[in-house]
Amino acid sequence: MFLLNLKGAGKRFQHEWIFRCLDLELGPGQQLAITGSNGSGKSTLIKCIAGQMPLTEGGLAYFKSGNEVPAAEFYRHIVISAPYLELPEEFTLKEFLNFHFKFKKIRENTSLREFVDMVYLEQALNKPISYFSSGMKQRLKLGICFFSEASLVLLDEPTSNLDERGISWYLEMIREHTKHKCVLIASNDSREYGFCQNRIRMEDYKKKISL
Ligand SMILES: Nc1ncnc2c1ncn2[C@@H]1O[C@H](COP(=O)(O)OP(=O)(O)OP(=O)(O)O)[C@@H](O)[C@H]1O
């Protein structure tokens, strides 16, 4: 059993509060859409939850089987796909997958062969990632999220660079492969998050301070 808990969370850059007073509690099988206009702080919140950026105030905690996970161990339970995260371009797909799945276990009963079929990259196994199209890179980033063993899946703009087939594929993957995970989606496109039971708008957590 996994639990993500944010209490009174706030983030400020210099003098500007991006969000404040944000409380969240999410567990397995729950999906949260983080919506808001450009620059409202969706990616900033995702980065804070991923442990890539510290909160300015408030608390962030993960619990696994009732025990709090130490901050230094968060990354073991999290997978993230975001436009600002780069893939190692000099690796071939095969080299990258062998490397990645050394650190994050591939989902039980899934082989590398099945993985590449699922993300329809079977023709690209020996191709350097630098030669991938932007859609191929996006399917790889998302596939890593869907097929790694992790309780918390963070997706920032998940269908960017995907065509209609890719978007249908994304929705099917979400349906079939995230049932018992906690999924957070930062997005402005309702097709990406229409299925989420929980939604927040970043504007509701914006409080500027005057100095
Ligand atoms: N490292 C940083 N230092 C200072 N300001 C930052 C930093 N990162 C983000 N910001 C600012 O925080 C605000 C929120 O940015 P963020 O990227 O989180 O928004 P967003 O909702 O994801 O936007 P978009 O929909 O355009 O992707 C913006 O005003 C941005 O300029």
Automatic annotation (TrEMBL):
The keyword Lyase does not apply. Residues 4-211 form the ABC transporter domain. It holds the Pfam family ABC_tran. One of its GO terms (molecular function) is ATP binding. PROSITE patterns: ABC_TRANSPORTER_1, ABC_TRANSPORTER_2. The keyword Acetylation does not apply. Keywords: ATP-binding, Nucleotide-binding, Transport. SUPFAM superfamilies: P-loop containing nucleoside triphosphate hydrolases. Transmembrane segments: none annotated. It comes from the Bacteria. Gene3D superfamilies: P-loop containing nucleotide triphosphate hydrolases (3.40.50.300). SMART domains: AAA. This is ATP-binding cassette domain-containing protein. It comes from Negadavirga shengliensis.
